[in-house]
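Tutorial handout. Part one gives the primary structure; part two gives the three-dimensional structure as tokens.
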Amino acid sequence: TLPATEGLVRGQGEPGTEELIRALRGAGVAVLALARVVPAGQRELQYMDRYDVAYSSRVTVTCYDVATGRPRGRSLSATIEYTTLTIERSTEKALGPLAREIVQQVR
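Part two.
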């Protein structure tokens, strides 16, 4: 929802990291935390005469110094398995440690 990147995100395809960094540099932003989410599969669940689908995704977060365009620290990854009912809790559980480590990289 950054005004500097909205046009890039609405365009055709996925904006490149370099495009995002250039747009943010002009907006006075110091750090970009970029999350790439790739679907990793799904499986059917059956419990108490109900059916649901558990999805899994691989999330990789890379923190960039906008001034130089270079990564700050290493990329961090996690796999999330979730259903429509557990997505928020599952995401917080899997990505919470990554977010704390990203904060340390930024400092």
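Part three, for discussion. The first strand starts at residue 31 and ends at 47. The mean pLDDT is 85.
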